[in-house]
Amino acid sequence: MVERIEEMKALLLKLKEETLKEINKSMKSSSEHPSGEPSGDIYDQASNERDRELGLLLSDREREKLRNINDALLRIEEGEYGICEECGCDIPLGRLKVMPFAHYCVKCKEDLERFQAQTKRFEEERTYGEIPMNEEDDM
Fold first, then answer.
1. 115: in domain
2. What is the mean pLDDT of residues 87-115?
3. Which of 12, 34, 48, 110 shows its CA 20 to 30 Å from the CA of 128?
């Protein structure tokens, strides 16, 4: 068990280092692009804007990944790493190697995703059910 935790800690620290490098690279590339006057034609401007938005989206994902890694490292320190937050069972090593910051075992994660999908579908049905389909529905 201790070897398993040490192996996962090393993996998480390596992931953290790689993620920090990606964030730094992303920040460097966004600071290299001038943000002053637009240059080029409208297509160049649209392409530059799309690239900037993609960079922001990727850096948001990287920051979220870093938060998850730090959370997993904290759980290791607190002795709670590798334990499903829903059922309390051990999360299999194979799952942790694929998703080292997993909070749930596969079964509980599937149940949670199924519940979230049902909730989303219910909310969409409720929202769209309130929209009138034609002028007669308005009256």
1. no
2. 94
3. 110
